[in-house]
Amino acid sequence: MITIKLLLVEDDTNLGILLMEYLETNLYQVMWKRDALSALDALKKNAFQLCLLDISMPGMDGFSLARQIKIQYPSLPFLFITARTLKQDKLKAYELGAEDYITKPFDPDELICKMQVILRRIQNYSMEVLPDKVNIGKYLFEINKQELSIHGVITRLTEKESQILALLFLKKNNILRREDAVTSVYGKYDYFLGRSFDVFISRLRKLLKDDPSLQIENVFKVGFILRIYETVKV
User: Fold this and answer.
1) At what angle do helices 87-95 and 62-72 cross, to 10 degrees?
2) ∠ at Cα 44 (42, 46), nearest 5°?
3) CB 81 within 8 A of CB 105
4) Coil, helix or strand at residue 227
5) Rounded to 5, what percent of the chain is helix, strand, coil?
6) Which secondary-structure segment (H or E) carries 141?
7) Pick from 72-76, 105-109, 195-199: least confident
């Protein structure tokens, strides 16, 4: 049996104990830390499959911790468990790459279900339908390395940027439906995840700007098309 190892970062002692005990009864292995700095130290010494982060903590907050996770461990998924319900907090969380945003109080069974969706999607996510390397216009896209290069200049993509670019390429010159793409990348669809997805589309447009034969077009209320125009040789 494969044990899933979780990092729980929660400064509330009562909630931390309750969550850890509940997750462990559901056969997860949990390491609980009360602040971001001790969490970063734990990340250096352990291999986790998922992180559960509070936002409001003394010292470094959960958003800053999430940024460090994305820099140092770009393939490690995380979700937020927080009492903060403001729209801008949710948008910020998803723009940082959060898999989900759960507000307190919450049903622990719902948390388990959401975790299972995230873990299942990550474990099953595969680009086997594409070779390791594909040419997108003048760019070379190395999927397993999450690298995009042109004229010898290499750009390292985030996991989600790589996933979205692969989806666009699979549907090149055809519509990639926004709802389908968001669900494929995040495991579900809602307004905030859609906004996060749009941010990644904007980033990919900037990354592909050095080849005028490429364009990511909006299809109003439907989705996007990666247009690859043939260059005419004179």
Assistant:
1) 10
2) 65
3) no
4) strand
5) 40, 25, 35
6) strand 139-142
7) 72-76
Is residue 207 packed enough to be buried (19+ CB in 10 Å), middle (13-18) or exposed (0-12)?
middle
User: Can you name the residues that pair with 141 across neighbouring β-strands?
Assistant: 134, 148
Nearest by Cα to 69 from 127, 154, 13, 7: 7
Determine the distance from the C-alpha atom of residue 108 to the mean position of all C-alpha atoms in its chain, rounded to a whole number.
22
pTM: 0.62
Q: Which residues contact 105 (CB under 8 A, 6 or more apart)?
A: none
Q: For the purposes of burial, counting CB atoms within 10 Å of the CB of 74, is it exposed (0-12), middle (13-18) or buried (19 or more)?
A: middle
Measured from the Cβ of residue 122, the count of other Cβ atoms closer than 10 Å reads: 16
Q: Which two tokens stand for residue 189?
A: 């669809």
**Amino acid letter, 121:** R
The count of other CB atoms within 10 Å of the CB of residue 206 is 8
Phi/psi for 153 (5° steps) reads -95, 120
Closest Cα to residue 100, out of 108, 109, 86, 90? 90
Each residue of 85-131: pLDDT tens digit?
999 999 999 999 999 999 999 999 999 999 988 887 766 544 445 77
Output DSSP code: residue 31: E
Query: How far is it, in rounded angstroms, from Cα 83 to Cα 197?
Result: 24
Nearest partner of 215 among 183, 178, 181, 168, judged by Cα = 168
Alpha-carbon gap, residue 225 to 112, rounded angstroms: 35
Tokens of 99: 């898999």
- Structure tokens given for 177: 């439906």
